[in-house]
Every structure is written in structure tokens, then in C-alpha cells.
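Protein modeling request. Please complete all fields; requests missing the sequence field cannot be processed.
Requester role: graduate student
Desired output: 3D structure, C-alpha cell encoding
Chains: 1
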Amino acid sequence: MTTTTEQLSATTLLRFATAGSVDDGKSTLVGRLLHDSKSVLADQLEAVEHASRNRGQEAPDLALLTDGLRAEREQGITIDVAYRYFATPRRRFILADTPGHVQYTRNMVTGASTAELAVVLVDARNGVVEQTRRHAAVAALLRVPHVVLAVNKMDLVDYAEPVFAAIAEEFTAYAASLGVPEITAIPISALAGDNVVEPSAHMDWYGGPTVLEHLETVPVSHDLTACHARFPVQYVIRPQTAEHPDYRGYAGQIAAGAFRVGEAVTVLPSGRTSTISAIDALGESVDIAWAPQSVTLRLADDIDISRGDLIAPSGDAPATTQDVEATVCHVADQPLRVGHRVLLKHTTRTVKAIVKDIPSRLTLDDLSQHPAPGQLVANDIGRVVVRTAEPLALDAYADSRRTGSFLLIDPADGTTLSAGMAGASFAATATKDAEAADDDAEWDF
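Delivered output (445 residues):
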């Protein structure tokens, strides 16, 4: 008989994030998912029931399963990103429950940055609001492959199909214009449990999957092994012992793609070339390794390689540059201004840099651009031009979320200032659609 561990090891992993406006029911949906999929321990449920009774509630408030901070429970809101891990026989999940307030947009960016799917909640009574559009735009900027529109609180609109259809049509048109490749709309009631884990008895007009069924079956299309092969060097292993007098290995985690023994590679930013002579994984030599394995590469030639260098196939090596044009989400309370000296951290490499220009700030409500804002404040998203002191081997974020992203850091205290995505803003399809609809529109702001 197959053990639980063996079952889980055979299932795939899905990272997904929830988003939506304030009081749309994100934490309640997460709590309902955990509760109805039997992923809540007895003592956790007892603690939630106790806390709910203390607040004068007869039924357990399932939102308390994720809202763990005291300030969150006192105000009945989500402030920080809450990560939850659960599994069903069909798939394992890492869930990021993100806040809905405008001032916590940066937290939504954090939760969705590694997500393969985003669940955007909408209150059926309010429809698509400003924050709904903002979160859809953030998901598009972060290249989240799948978006689920969960039209919540259907019980409060008498489970009316026309209400759901109108909201789904409006949101789908907006998200598609941004270049979101796949949008699935599901009518739910997180409080009552309709279409979350079990099909609803009140919406026989809906024939699609429940939220959990969709999460279990959606294809995880962001396959790191299909991306350009990239290996950021984290550590140089040179034991110089009697047993290993000449051993020189370069350790790290493969960020994307696969590497093979005998493959010609280029070391960046130096541009020196060599051949992979051996790959060590878990103390054994292997012929091939792929993302996200942590391995040690050995090369045929002795080359000056250190932490921060990038090893890539010679036929598919990224170009190096000192002028980085990117979209950034500013996450710090202190503004980012033109002329600021910063540190830019890309994979394992950190270099000095200066902000040369901030061409525009994006207004997520209507996707218009505010030219030459001069600075970005907390939660702003805008275009920046950064000049680095040393060359960087950056991919476009559209090609690789792992090697196309970076952080801007305050050199004085190490505070993260901005999260960056190199290259164009939205997907190319969005740009073409927008130009077709309006010749004056400029989506690559």
C-alpha cells in the first residue's frame, strides 16, 4: 500500500495567491479551503472556535485560520502575507493570502511574485472595483500564467446568474486586454461553502469546476526546465585536501533550464568559455541536472569564477548590460528618487548602481501613465532606468521570472527599496490589443 509520503512525492506542487478588495472574503475563502479539504488540525479549529466565541460569533470565523496578527484580528482585515501549506491526494499547495488594502499593494506583489495562479475575489454586490483592476494589473505585470475570478458572496445576491455573468464578462475583458493568458470565473460563497470544495446546490446553472477542483487540475505551465538554462554561482568549493588536491567546483541552485556534462558554457560577465566536465549532486556524479536542483558544476578549464557570476550555455547566453530598464514596484516607505545610489541584487550578484531616470509612474486604475514623476513612493509601480557599476547578465522578465527579476536595496541599512522586472511591462499581446483599440495608447510606459 502506498504511503502518504510516497503519494505526496508523486503529486505536483502549485503555488497560488489570493487577492481582491477589502472585505471581499479572501481569508474566509482560504479558511474554507483548508477546513473543507480536511487540512486543519483539531487544535487549530478549536482555537478558531474559541476566538470566535470571544468575539460574540456563533459560527467559527474561518478567516482567523490565516489572519494571525493581533492587529489583523482586531480590525478584521489582512495586513501581512500569510502563507499556508496544504495538500490533497491530487496536488500539494503553497498558498499566499495577500491583503486587499491599497496601502498593502506591495504585499500582494510579494505573494504573487512566485505564484503560478492568482485567485482574484470580487464581492458579487459590488462587482469589479478599482482594487480589482489593480490586482489584475499586478498579476499581469508579474506574468502570473493563470487567473481565477472568484465571484464571492453569491448568497447575498440570491445566487443570481445574471449578476455573475456581468461581473465575469467585465473582468475577463479587462484582464485579457492586459495579456493575462488564462482566466477562469467561478461563482462562490466562501461563508456558506458553495463551489469552494463542494459543488453548490443553489447554482445549478453553473456547470464548471469548484475552486479546489480547478486548483487540482490546472496545468502548472511555468516549467523552469523549459526556460533558458541559467546557473548563478553561489559558492566556490576548493577543499585543497590530500583527498581532493585539484578539486574546483562551483555550487549553486540552477535557476532555470538544464545542464549536461560535455556542454559548452560561457561564464558571465567575463565572457570566458569552457566545457562542463562533471556535475555533482547529493555527493554523486550525474550526467544531467535541471532546475531547481542544487548542484556543483566542474569545468574543464581553470577560470576565475566567483560568487555572483552566471554560467549559461554558450549558444544561449544572455547579453550583459550596465543600463537596466525595468518596471519596479516600490515597497519601502522612503521614496525612490532620480540620482539615488542603491545596490542592485540579481540572483547571487550584488552591484552598486544609481537611479538615472524614472520615466513614468503607472496608474493602475486605468493603466494610464504619469510621465516624469521624479520619484516613486510606497506601493507605486513605475518604469526606471538604472546604471550599474558592473555588467549584469539579465534576462527579460517575460522570458524568465527567476533571472529577469532583481531588488533595489538601500546601501546604508540593507532595506529593500523596490522589486524590479527587467524588460517590457505587460505581455506583447496586451500592447498589440491596446494599439489596435486606440492608436494613441502606449502600454509599454
